[in-house]
Amino acid sequence: MQQISPASAALRTAAGASDAAAVKAKTAELKKLFGDAQAVFQGRNILTAMLLIADANKAVDAAAAGAAAGKWEEVTAANTALGQVCTTCHTAHRERMDDGTFRIK
After folding, report:
1. pLDDT surpassing 90 at residue 26
2. Domains in the chain and their CATH numbers?
3. Where in the chain does DSSP place strands (E)?
């Protein structure tokens, strides 16, 4: 899950540069990473996190579709929506430890 934030930031950069190839690569990477996260939450039976991952995947799909159509404002909007989903999930399911690391609640 720690790889999702850098991939999302790279997606944002690619969208800002109108780089369709980079958006395609980052959306594929994010789909894989969210699949991995889905397995973690499924193993812990955390339904709300699984639903939020489904929302994250919808945002990633929207970013990919927007880039394929050359609609960069849609890519940017989808990445913003992705960030909101991530924040919602982190607030609900992530806890900061005393040493600055995080754990799943």
Report:
1. yes
2. 4-104 (1.20.120.10)
3. 94-96, 102-104
Residues 6+ apart with CB under 8 A from 82: 8, 11, 30, 56, 59, 60, 63
Q: Answer whether 89's CB lies under 8 Å from 46's CB.
A: no
At 16, list the tokens.
Answer: 């800002």
Q: Are 11 and 63 in contact (CB under 8 A)?
A: yes
Cα–Cα distance for residue pair 102/98, rounded to 1 Å:
9
Where do we find the tokens 């594929």? 28
Structure tokens at 15: 């969208």
The DSSP secondary-structure symbol of 3 reads T
pTM score: 0.92
